[in-house]
Automatic annotation (TrEMBL):
The keyword Membrane applies. It comes from the Eukaryota. Keywords: Cell membrane, Glycoprotein, Leucine-rich repeat, Membrane, Receptor, Repeat, Transmembrane, Transmembrane helix. PROSITE patterns: LRR. The keyword Repeat applies. It is a single-pass type I membrane protein. This is Receptor-like protein 12. It comes from Arabis alpina. Its main location: membrane. One of its GO terms (cellular component) is plasma membrane.
Length: 325
């Protein structure tokens, strides 16, 4: 069963009675719905696709949805969701989730290091063939961002495309190391938050990654050199952080525009204009040359003064001798 009411002028609170236990796909994106998500959604064990983007829903994160065994796509983007997205005392996993899109809300707090443990569908491609067939008929479309561009996914493409987008929220603390276990991940966007600490080395395990955006955070340290060897990584953005050190060498990184590394005062190397290593020596050499030139100028000035002084003295003595004789 599918309920697709996207791109209408629906308003008011989402009615509980509209939720059926046999629901597989629910899309009410781009309306004016407010209030909270229906609590009865946690009883929809067949639910695979949930899209409520572009509404005015004011609610906390729907933790109960993680118990749904068949949920593949969760899109909460552009609402007024708020608060943490993890429980301190409870494990957190979406075993079949392939698209996790919660951008442009007011989610906050720290993502614990184990946050992405148990997201098995992003670790390996384990979807049965019959599920791929079902996906063609029940799912609506959803627009996501890949490599900085908007793209629309339709039908069975959902089964192949795997993305995490938590951008434009209020997350802080370290980026979880467990992100590196999601080897099937294609797009990772964590921009416009307040993440701190270093870029996890585990990101270098994401060999299928095509787009990485960590811009507009407070990350420090160096960019892991191995990121330059991810052959599918076509777009990356590290701008507006506090990163330092040389930009890793590699075709994928060197082909990026300099704006992808801008506003990191400590970064150096191509594609930025700031070179690494030699800049300090060149500056010191220039200062030494300036000092040497200044010393030479002073010597020349004193020499000229001395040359002018001696004839003057001689001339003065001569005139004095004539006048007194």
């Amino acid at each position: 069963m599918a309920l697709h009411l996207q791109n209408n002028s629906l308003s008011g609170v989402f009615p509980e009675e509209s939720i059926s236990l046999g629901l597989r796909s629910l899309d009410v994106g781009h309306n004016q719905l407010s209030g909270q998500l229906p609590k009865s959604l946690i009883n929809c064990t067949y639910l695979e696709f949930l899209n409520v983007e572009g509404n005015k829903i004011n609610d906390t994160f729907p933790f109960g949805l993680r118990f749904l065994p068949n949920l593949w796509i969760l899109v909460l983007r552009s609402n007024a969701f708020h608060g943490p997205v993890s429980h301190r005392r409870d494990s957190f996993s979406f075993p079949n989730l392939r698209i996790f899109e919660i951008s442009d809300n007011r989610f906050s707090g720290v993502l614990p290091s184990y946050y992405f443990v148990g997201w098995n569908a992003m670790v390996e491609d384990n979807m049965p063939h019959d599920a791929r067939i079902v996906a063609r008929y029940y799912h609506s479309s959803v627009v996501l961002t890949n490599k900085g561009l908007k793209m629309e996914l339709v039908g069975s493409v959902f089964t192949m495309y795997k993305t995490i987008d938590v951008s434009r929220n209020r997350f802080e603390g370290d980026i979880p190391e467990s992100i590196g276990s999601l080897k099937e991940l294609i797009v990772l966007n964590m921009s416009y938050n307040a993440f701190t600490g270093h870029i996890p080395q585990s990101l270098t395990n994401l060999t299928n990654l095509q787009s990485l955006d960590l811009s507009q955070n407070r990350l420090s340290g160096e960019i892991p050199p191995q990121l330059g060897k991810l052959t599918f990584l076509e777009r990356m953005n590290f701008s507006y952080n506090m990163l330092e050190g040389p930009i890793p060498q590699g075709t994928q990184i060197q082909s990026q525009n300099g704006s992808s590394f801008a506003e990191n005062p400590g970064l150096c190397g191509a594609p930025l204009e700031d070179t690494c290593g030699g800049g300090g020596e060149e500056e010191a050499t220039k200062e030494e040359q300036d000092e040497e030139k200044e010393e030479k100028d002073q010597v020349l000035s004193w020499t000229a003064a001395a040359i002018a002084y001696v004839p003057g003295v001689v001339c003065g003595l001569t005139i004095a001798h004539i006048l007194t004789s």
